[in-house]
Specification:
With 274 residues, the chain is mainly beta. The chain is built from three helices and 13 strands, in the order H-H-E-E-E-E-E-E-E-E-E-E-E-E-E-H. It has a single domain, classed as Lipoprotein localisation LolA/LolB/LppX (outer membrane lipoprotein receptor (LolB), chain A), CATH 2.50.20.10. It is globular, with a radius of gyration of 18 Å.
């Protein structure tokens, strides 16, 4: 999966892009390598999502997630993600499609079985919760390198939720356009081995910590073609202000087995049939 997963996008003037690139070269170099993280061409995952209230009560959801990465017409990386909820009954047959676009807003659609209709998720809904989780629609997307100033702070070892230990670079990411993000800034711990963000702290516009994302497990796995990947198998997103959390665990994954193009369409959202 992704890192609980990513793209509020904006096109920046050349002067702003240059300012971001040279304000902190080390931080920008690190986060550029993060953005180039090698991902499979295709994935099909069985996922368990656990929502936990402050009082400890839980809701466990089962879903299938499909992923595809391919170049667009300009040769830029284009990523597709589909989530197909299977249980419980309250979310069964809800399906979500996101298409990540380079230098343009992501396309997002959601099928709601109660309405028997698919609708586009507007950019104005970016700060809304996705399916009652601790992630907003904007959290589902990554940001372009040019959108943030990347300040390298230090090297640091960290132990995340669940006990995994990582040797990391620590980078502070601050939006150049303050209106382009729901956060004032993010503190990111990047694992030196995988170059994947394993701990992220998100601060609201009052500079108060609001969310913490931990990657609890990364596994090296080979796909059907023999390519090896670092796969984040488990992560947890906590809202420290509300006490609510969302944990996502991949229990089974198929890598680089080609998927039919129709999976990544609105028609699949409507029917659930491949």
């Amino acid at each position: 999966m992704n890192r609980v997963m990513k793209i509020v996008l904006a096109v920046l003037a050349l002067a702003l892009v240059s300012g971001a690139a040279f304000a902190n070269p080390r931080g920008t170099e690190i986060m550029t390598e993060v953005s180039d993280f090698k991902e499979p061409k295709f994935t099909r995952s069985q996922v368990v999502m656990t929502l936990t209230e402050k009082n400890g009560s839980k809701e466990v959801r089962q879903l299938l997630q499909y992923g595809k990465e391919e170049p667009d017409k300009n040769g830029e990386k284009k990523t597709y993600v589909v989530m197909d909820f299977k249980s419980p009954a309250s979310v069964k047959d809800t399906r979500f499609l996101q298409i990540e676009n380079k230098n343009a807003a992501d396309d997002k659609w959601i099928y709601l079985p109660s309405l028997k209709a698919t609708r586009r998720v507007n950019s104005s809904e970016g700060s809304k919760s996705f399916m009652g989780t601790d992630a907003t629609y904007d959290d589902m997307s990554s940001r372009e390198i040019e959108e943030d100033d990347h300040e390298y702070l230090r090297d640091e070892s960290i132990t995340v939720e669940g006990g995994a230990k990582y040797d990391c670079y620590v980078v502070k990411e601050t939006p150049i356009d303050k209106k382009s993000s729901q956060y004032a800034y993010r503190m990111v711990w990047v694992d030196k081995d995988s170059m994947y963000p394993v701990h992220t702290e998100m601060f609201d516009k009052s500079d108060k910590l609001v969310k913490v994302l931990d990657v609890m497990k990364i596994v090296k796995m080979k796909g059907a073609t023999g390519e090896e990947y670092d796969i984040p198998m488990s992560n947890i997103l906590k809202n420290v202000q509300s006490g609510h959390s969302t944990q996502i665990e991949i229990v089974k994954i198929e890598i680089d087995k080609e998927l039919p193009p129709k999976v990544f369409t609105q028609n699949f959202l409507n029917t659930g049939k491949i």
